[in-house]
Amino acid sequence: MRRLVLILLIGLAPLVCFASPVGLEIVEAPTTLVGLAESALNNHEAVARAESRVRRADADIKLSKSILLPSLALSANYTRYGSEQALDLGEGESFVIQPIDDWRWSANITQTLFSGLRDWRAKDVAKLRRDIAILEQNTTATNLVLEVAQGFFESVTTEQRLEVRRAALKNIEAQLHVTNRLFEVGELTIADVARWRAEVAAAKQAVVIAEGEYQLAKRRLARLAGVPEITQLDPPGPIPAPAGDLTDHVSHALDDRLEMKTLRNQIEAAGLMIKIEKGAWLPEANANLGYFQQKADFPTRDWTSLAINVRIPIYDGGLTAARVAGARRSARGTTARNRASKRHQ
Questions:
Q1: Per-residue pLDDT at 88
Q2: Which residue ranges in the chain fall short of pLDDT 70?
Q3: Looking at the whole model, is its pTM more than 0.70?
Q4: CB under 8 Å, gap of 24 or more: what pairs does 90-97 form?
Q5: How far, in Å, CA of 294 to CA of 72, rounded?
Q6: What is the 3-state secondary structure (H, E, C) of the chain?
Q7: Cβ atoms 163, 207 nearer than 8 A
């Protein structure tokens, strides 16, 4: 995330011609666009939610890998009976079937040999979803920086508009003062004085409205940046126009925008989900290796076993077909969203 912050701030710095704060230390009330954007990336809840989705995707990858690994189970049992039971074979030979203090334990290792490749494809889907989560995290951070920039420029604009309104009010009040003096010497009528008084009232109302817009814009910006209050802002310098024509920008957006990369990964993941659901029609096989030991002599004190279990699905009431159809609908929906995004671009 720290690397993402650096990339975003470096990309934003050429657009605003003012000095950025030294280092990445967050000040209490930043006044520059770079400082506010950095504060938003560190404090906004949308970024925290995106980071949590990335961590959850990493956990899903570990879970999908664990299914591919063998499983080991140990079990133990201890029982005390009222009397010992033995099988007498004659000539002093006997087998203890039930000792007074009986114990037994076993170890079993199970390994899935084949399950329609669903486990491997689930791991690939989990990796794609992690890539999607990372892209969405970057998209969230980028959009947040753009929202902060929009709020910053809106705040600067409303502040300048407020100054213009205040200057206009001073000029109108000065004109009203001149009109009153001319009315006193008899050069103007009372209608002229009333007209300028109305102009003053309208200018005061415009100042009040501009003041409200300025305060609202600052509060919105403070909410995005995660700071309690913004006292002042450093206006930016001129912003250069991006180089290249519109066609180049559209082509670049379709190829490199994070949202388009996310959609491509979603389409690939949707295709893998179809294959995962189809895997339920394929046979399954797993191996189980076990070791058992007990105190009783009958039938034997310990033994080892190896079992290969094969399951061939015949009919499941159409459940797998329904799941495959649902996965196909999801894939078609993702493809449609991809096409809609391209048309929108």
A1: 76
A2: 1-29, 92, 239, 241-242, 249-250, 253-254, 338, 341-345
A3: no
A4: 95/296, 95/297, 95/298, 96/295, 96/296, 96/297, 96/298, 97/296, 97/297, 97/298
A5: 19
A6: CHHHHHHHHHHHHHHCCCCCCCCCCCCCCCCCHHHHHHHHHHHCHHHHHHHHHHHHHHHHHHHHHHHHCCEEEEEEEEEECCCCEEEEEECCEEEEEECCEEEEEEEEEEEEEEECCHHHHHHHHHHHHHHHHHHHHHHHHHHHHHHHHHHHHHHHHHHHHHHHHHHHHHHHHHHHHHHHHHHHCCCCCHHHHHHHHHHHHHHHHHHHHHHHHHHHHHHHHHHHHCCCCCCCCCCCCCCCCCCCCHHHHHHHHHHHCHHHHHHHHHHHHHHHHHHHHHHHHCCEEEEEEEEEEECCCCCCCEEEEEEEEEECCCCCCCHHHHHHHHHHHHHHHHHHHHHHHHHHC
A7: no
Distance in angstroms (rounded) separating the CA atoms of residues 160 and 115: 67
Radius of gyration of the chain (CA): 37
Domain that holds residue 71: 2-77+99-227+257-344
* CATH number of the domain residue 123 falls in: 1.20.1600.10
Question: Is 235 inside a domain boundary?
Answer: no
What is the amino acid identity at position 162? Answer: L
Q: Which two tokens stand for residue 58?
A: 């990493």
End-to-end C-alpha distance for the chain, whole angstroms: 28
In a domain, 87, yes or no: no
pLDDT in tens, 143-202: 999 999 999 999 999 999 999 999 999 999 999 999 999 888 888 888 989 999 999 999
Total domains, the chain: 1
Report how far residue 342's alpha carbon sits from residue 224's, in angstroms, rounded to the nearest whole number.
Answer: 29
> Is 128 a member of any domain?
yes
In angstroms, the CA 152 to CA 145 distance is 10
